[in-house]
Structures are given as structure tokens and as C-alpha cells.
Design goal:
This protein is α+β, with helices and mostly antiparallel strands and 318 residues long. It has two domains: 10-172 and 311-316, Ribosomal Protein S5, domain 2 (2-Layer Sandwich); 179-308, Alpha-Beta Plaits (2-Layer Sandwich), CATH 3.30.70.890. It is 36% helix and 25% strand. The protein has ten helices and eleven strands. The chain has helices at residues 70-81, 104-118, 126-141, 150-155, 191-196, 204-223, 226-232, 239-242, 249-257, 280-298; strands at residues 10-20, 29-45, 49-56, 87-93, 158-164, 167-172, 179-185, 264-266, 273-277, 302-308, 315-316. Strands 1, 2, 3, 4, 5, 6 and 11 form a seven-stranded mixed β-sheet that branches. It has a four-stranded antiparallel β-sheet with strand order 8-9-7-10, covered by helices on one side. The longest helix is centred in the C-terminal third of the chain and has 20 residues, at 204-223. The radius of gyration is 19 Å and the shape is globular. The two termini are 20 Å apart. 48% of the residues are buried. Bound molecules: L-homoserine.
Length: 318
């Protein structure tokens, strides 16, 4: 056994889906969900390097080349940086939809590096893991790397990314009684495309509203002021453009207003939509109406996820 290892030769890890942006906080806010998420099985091998031996749940859509998959890119970066003298083989089990705005690529990268860290005799800190996950994210999102999926997937809870470069992240306390409803319409939106259609500039009046709301959302969470949270989850930047990519968006938003939701918007770059509420029952009712209105207005089916907020990040399954 290599003396860099702690004796564990195989491990199975879950890492969560995430909701990023949360209305006003484009590229700077994200929170983690209890479910869904991805699973990675990592096995130690004598041959150095990373091998991707199996992917399930991706309908054949994910690249199998180690240099193109977010999980294996993150792992390769970590193994090189830490000068690890052994090899690993990886099984990636996708348990969440791809291209859905739920941070699928981030969950895979985080599950991989968390698994590797968990078998090291001298594991690195969670903060030190973040740059490796970001290298994985770079593969899927292009030049500008945003930490608003990987950071909450890794740390859990609600994360403020004060700066993406250099990365400066802050955990914001989130009330325990938050439930999140996710509607995943059965369409795909490519994140790079959803970023390319955003305006290059923002009007001063819209910017003032946006930064008022970002500050309002942080204050609302910290003060447990649910009405302030609700008032602050609005978006004057991405939503006006991206909502046009999601059939039935305006009708679903209107329908959710009838319920006791205190936040509604596009999850990340979409097409998934999120709504926040304080009880599981409300979350279920909101999910049912979202799905119904999606079908009535756009003839598109969708999946509903009801989840608490994940406060711990990844977990070891075995
Ligand atoms: N903040 C990113 C975006 C998240 O909205 O483009 C992508 O999942």
C-alpha cells in the first residue's frame, strides 16, 4: 500500500446538485440541495494516473476521455498538484439531469475530489480542494470560471462568491426550514449559449436594483426575514433574456405567485426553475402547479424534486 494512502482502497461518494444565481446574484450566489446529486466510486490502482472506467445515467452524452470529463479533469489536477504516486479508476454514476442548470458538472467534479481526499493519509482542507473542482468546471463552462456551483456543492449551505478571481467565498447562514422545489422541464440549455446571450453592459438603474437585491438577500437570510428574502429574489439582468429560452416561464411564475413561495427564478442557466417555501407540503403543492402549468402552456413534461438545503456538502456512502 502506498504510504500516501490511509488504508482505504475503494470509496463511494455523493455530491449534491446546486441552485446558483438565486435571482439577483448572477455568478455570486449558490446553495446546495439534499437531492438530487451524483455518485462517484473511486478505486486505488498501482498504475499512476486517472482512468474513467464507467459512466451511467448520462444516456451516452458525457465525454469518456479523461481530459474532457469534469470529474477526471478535477482529479488529474489534484493528483498532479499533490504529487500522488498511485493511480485511481473512476465510476461516475449520474443521478441528476445534465444541462439542467443544477450544477451537474460541478457535482461530478466535487464527488471525485472529495473521494480522493477521503483516502489520503494527509487530506487537504476543503478550501484547498476548491481550485481542483474549478479546473473541472472550466472544461464545461469555457474561459470564465464561476464558482457558484462547485463552492456550494463542496461546502454545502448558501455560499456567497465575493470574488471569482481570486476566489473568495463566504458561507451565509440559511434558515433550516427552507424547502426548495425544483422543476426540471425536459429541454436542455447549454450554459455557454445561455451566457453568450447576456448583455455586455447593464443600465445604471438596473444595476442599482440588482445590488440592492443582492445585499437584501444576504441580510434577509442572516436576519431570517422571509419577506425580505422574497422581495430580494428578483433578477434584472439574466432573467429577462434567459426566461425566453424556457417555454411557459411567465405562466409558471404567475402561477407560483398564488402560493406561499418566498423566492422563484431560474436555477443557474436553466432550464430548471426553483421556488423556496417553508414547509414540505407547500413545496409539494408548488411543484405540482409548476409541472401542471408547464404542460398546459408549453406541452412539455418535467420532473419535480423537493429538497431541503444541504448544509454539509458531499458525503461518503461507503
Ligand atoms: N452562474 C452561472 C450562469 C451558472 O448563470 O451562467 C451556470 O450553471
Amino acid at each position: 500500500m502506498n504510504d500516501q494512502l490511509n488504508g482505504i482502497s475503494e470509496i463511494r461518494v455523493f455530491a449534491p446538485a446546486t441552485v446558483s444565481n438565486i435571482g439577483c446574484g448572477f455568478d455570486i450566489f449558490g446553495f446546495a440541495l439534499d437531492e438530487p446529486g451524483d455518485e462517484v466510486i473511486l478505486r486505488v490502482t498501482n498504475r499512476k494516473g486517472v482512468r474513467l472506467v464507467k459512466i451511467t445515467g448520462d444516456k451516452g452524452k458525457l465525454p469518456t476521455a479523461v481530459s474532457k470529463n469534469t470529474c477526471t479533469v478535477a482529479l488529474t489536477t489534484m493528483m498532479e498538484k499533490l504529487n500522488l504516486e498511485f493511480g485511481v479508476e473512476i465510476e461516475l454514476h449520474k443521478k441528476m439531469p445534465l444541462g439542467s442548470g443544477l450544477g451537474s458538472s460541478a457535482a461530478s467534479a466535487v464527488a471525485g475530489i472529495y473521494a480522493l481526499n477521503s483516502i489520503l493519509k494527509k487530506p487537504v482542507t476543503t478550501h484547498e480542494l476548491l481550485p481542483f473542482a474549478l479546473e473541472g468546471e472550466r472544461i464545461s463552462s469555457g474561459k470564465i470560471v464561476h464558482a457558484d456551483n462547485v463552492a456550494p456543492a463542496l461546502f454545502g449551505g448558501f455560499i456567497l462568491i465575493r470574488s471569482n478571481d481570486p476566489v473568495d467565498i463566504i458561507s451565509i447562514p440559511i434558515p433550516k426550514d427552507f424547502y426548495c422545489t425544483i422543476l426540471h422541464p425536459h429541454i436542455e440549455i447549454n450554459t455557454a449559449y445561455a451566457r453568450s446571450i447576456l448583455p455586455d453592459t447593464i443600465k445604471t438603474q438596473n444595476a442599482i436594483k440588482q445590488w440592492g437585491n443582492t445585499a437584501g438577500l444576504v441580510a434577509g437570510l442572516m436576519k431570517r426575514d422571509y419577506d425580505l428574502v422574497r422581495r430580494s429574489i428578483t433578477d434584472n439582468f439574466a432573467e429577462p433574456v434567459r426566461s425566453k429560452l424556457i417555454p411557459g416561464y411567465d405562466q409558471i411564475k404567475e402561477a407560483v405567485k398564488m402560493y406561499d413561495a418566498f423566492g422563484f427564478g431560474i436555477s443557474g442557466s436553466g432550464p430548471s426553475l426553483f421556488a423556496l417555501s417553508r414547509t414540505k407540503l407547500d413545496a409539494l403543492k408548488i411543484g405540482n402547479i409548476m409541472k401542471k402549468v408547464l404542460f398546459q402552456s408549453a406541452k412539455i413534461e418535467g420532473d419535480i424534486y423537493i429538497s431541503g438545503i444541504n448544509l454539509y456538502g458531499p458525503k461518503i456512502l461507503g
